[in-house]
Amino acid sequence: MPSETTRAVTRARAQRAPRPSRWLPALAAAATAFAAAPAAAAEEGLRIFPDLPVLALLVGFFALLVWPLSALLWRPLLRVLDERRERIDGTVARARQVAAEAEDVLGTYQRAVEVARRAAEAERRG
Predict the structure, then answer these.
(1) Is residue 47 left, alpha or beta, with left meaning phi > 0 and alpha meaning psi from -120 to 50?
(2) Interior/surface letters 19-45, b for 16+ CB within 10 angstroms, e for the rest
(3) CA atoms of 90 and 82, how far apart (whole Å)
(4) CA distance 116 to 100
(5) Is this structure's pTM higher than 0.90?
(6) Which of 9, 13, 68, 126 maximizes the CB count within 10 A of its CB?
(7) pLDDT in tens, 72-113
(8) Which contiguous run of DSSP H or E holds residue 60?
(9) 26 φ, ψ (degrees, to nearest 5)
């Protein structure tokens, strides 16, 4: 006879079963997007390489955007992530310290309980 845990896991898996109707609109949209436009060709044939002036302009815009994005986005984001990691590491270290202190307190408590039990047993016998 299956245990309650086994039944709960089976119920959870049944609830997580994939629903094809949920993915159907997304698949239809993707198929439409890929089939929407045929490959375009210029009058003189298929153009694989872009115009050099346009390419140079795009590379220049990219280079101009790297500096402000680095200063305004990436450095602050990385600084926040570093601070977060430091806080997490500090919290983990503090949690380990508290756990070690708790183990010491628990050991002291267990020893005191054992001493009290022995004293009570000796007093009861004696």
Answers:
(1) beta
(2) eeeeeeeeeeeeeeeeeeeeeeeeeee
(3) 12
(4) 24
(5) no
(6) 9
(7) 888 999 999 999 999 999 999 999 999 999 999 999 999 999
(8) helix 52-69
(9) -65, -40
